[in-house]
Amino acid sequence: MQTEALMEAGAFSDEERAAVYRAIMTRRDVRDEFLPDEIEDEALWRILTAAHHAPSVGFMQPWNFILVRDEARKKQVWQAFAKANDEAASMFEGEKAALYRSLKLEGILKAPLGICVTCDPDRAGPVVLGRTHNPRMDSYSTVCAIQNLWLAARAEGIGVGWVSIFHEADLRAVLGIPDRIEIVGWLCLGKVKALYGEPELQVKGWRKRLALEELVFEERWKAPG
Ligand SMILES: Cc1cc2c(cc1C)N(C[C@H](O)[C@H](O)[C@H](O)COP(=O)(O)O)c1[nH]c(=O)[nH]c(=O)c1N2
After folding, report:
1. What is the set of domains in the chain, with CATH numbers?
2. Could you tell me which residue ranges the Nitroreductase domain spans (predicted)?
């Protein structure tokens, strides 16, 4: 062990621990609660720094963050969403379809900042430590970065909404993203008036949080029920 490279690893103080869990429990996906106020550069950089400190396979750090503030560009992104969302609505049936159409599933135009998070599979060369047997590991790493960003934003009082209802090719065309780069998420960021206390999809009757007890198994897989 290279002891000179190690840091202290004890549990956090009660207050620090409470703050970490508070960020986790009160993080919400934001669609409609955005305020128009700009996010300060310092806060944005702290949030992006948190994202950049996520774990990544082979420490490849495959992410990029494309910051989009231009209204015309956001309008193009929204149009790509609107097309896909219409298609999505037709995939549900009956009451579910009606409920789907009543949901607002993005804040692309309302949020002052859009961030397209991408994954570059070539960032660390063709053979990556840890990705040798599962090529999806670089995408998973990028998702870890998004989660760090989401939690740091919560601590900064900034809301984040993840929008995934797009044809990837449409977003690629709008943002000039080359084919070899994967688009992992479109994030809407902005200060917020308030947040839902529970997931909005639960509040609006789409789906409830599952009981953790039914999801944790000892030793062997168990079919539900
Ligand atoms: C990969 C991925 C993709 C999406 C989402 C999340 C994630 C992780 N979510 C947000 C999702 O609906 C939300 O996280 C859950 O409903 C739980 O709510 P809270 O995040 O706790 O508020 C989401 N929400 C939405 O309104 N439109 C969308 O396109 C998406 N896409």
Report:
1. 29-193 (3.40.109.10)
2. 24-191
